[in-house]
Amino acid sequence: MTAHSSTSMTNLPQPDHPYKVMAVYKFAPLPDVESLKAPLAAFCCAREIKGTLILAPEGINGTVSGSPQAIEALADFLFVSGPFGTRLAGAEVKYSYADTAPFLRMKVRLKPEIVTLRAPQVDPNRQVGTYVEPEDWNALIERNDVVLVDTRNDYEVGIGTFQRALDPNTQSFVEFKDFVAKNLDPKRDKKVAMFCTGGIRCEKASSYMLSQGFEEVFHLKGGILKYLEVVPETESRFSGECFVFDERVSVGHGLELGQATLCRACRHPLTAADRQHQHYVEGVSCAYCADDSDKHQAAAERQRQMDLARQRGRAHMGDAVADDAARARAEKIERAEQSRLANKG
Predict the structure, then answer these.
(1) 55 and 12, same structural domain?
(2) Is 44 assigned a catalytic role?
(3) SS3 for 179-216, per residue?
């Protein structure tokens, strides 16, 4: 057993899929962060691992994919044998699988923060809220004395969230501080529960809340993704799908591929209802960018180039990944409809 096997890593039972996806984050002091970038990038590129990893003095954050063997080797490099030593031990790690590569290239980036809040007084390495396991989350959020807050941005909340959760209506995580100042009061809101996609934003948000005088702050361990993985759909309090930052766009219960797509002009996630809107034109526009003609022109030209590439029998760069994801999504919808009709009969 390797040292990293004790971290929060769950292998979904889908070994036949060619790509393994690894989402990882850890708040840990990395004062030597600049010297870590090159060996990490070289290790990933040598094994054809693709995605993005962010390094900062406060830790690591990112999502990558590759062959199952390559991702297992990366886990060993990060948690055991590489230049990080044991500093990333106990990292929050989630595995899933895909039929097509979710990412097109490999990037290792150095940033001041692994999740940007711009609150110097916040240090998740020193102070965070109380972790709540997914199995215990329903009981907590159903209490009348708990204020439930979604710490994600508006476009993420729009395709799925927990029932009765407050939506901060933010476009970036930096705006979360203003939401707290205007809408929450430590004297009134004695118990606050928060959630996000994978848990990282909540670690920083809970640290910030505690620095502002809030007494009891809870956050969902492993985020929505862990909740959707382990909580049965029949017991779920999550409505809709969870936005993810790759060509899958969204996932549902069991981390299965969702039905959301991206507007290729403005990159806003679109639900099935959004795609029925009068301003939706596939590959060109949607209701969220209806007034932005510049984006429409650029998207229309891109769509034209993609169509030409198809006619010539060549895939436009990046198009194959999106097409494969869309094809898988369409097949899933068709299977669901066939099952519904069979059960109806």
Answers:
(1) yes
(2) no
(3) HHHHHCCCCCCCEEEEECCCCHHHHHHHHHHHHCCCCE
Give the mean model confidence (pLDDT) for residues 213-227: 95
Handedness of CA 149, 152, 157, 159 (dihedral sign): negative
Q: Nearest CA to 40 among 96, 89, 97, 110?
A: 110
CATH number at residue 164: 3.40.250.10
Out of 191, 214, 230, pick the residue that ends a domain.
Answer: 230
Domain assignment present for residue 58? The answer is: yes
**From CA 150, how far away is CA 29, in angstroms rounded?**
27
Pair 219, 286 in one domain: no
Do 204 and 287 lie in a common domain?
no
pLDDT for the residue numbered 81 = 94
**In the prediction, which pLDDT does 283 show?**
78
Q: Which range of residues forms the domain containing residue 273?
A: 259-344
Q: What is the DSSP letter of 316?
A: P
**Distance of alpha carbon 56 from alpha carbon 115, whole angstroms:** 9
More confident residue, 320 or 171: 171
pLDDT at res. 338: 45
User: Which residue is catalytic, options 44, 196, 202, 266?
Assistant: 196
Instruction: Please state the domain count of the chain.
Output: 3
Confidence of residue 299 (pLDDT cuts 50, 70, 90): low
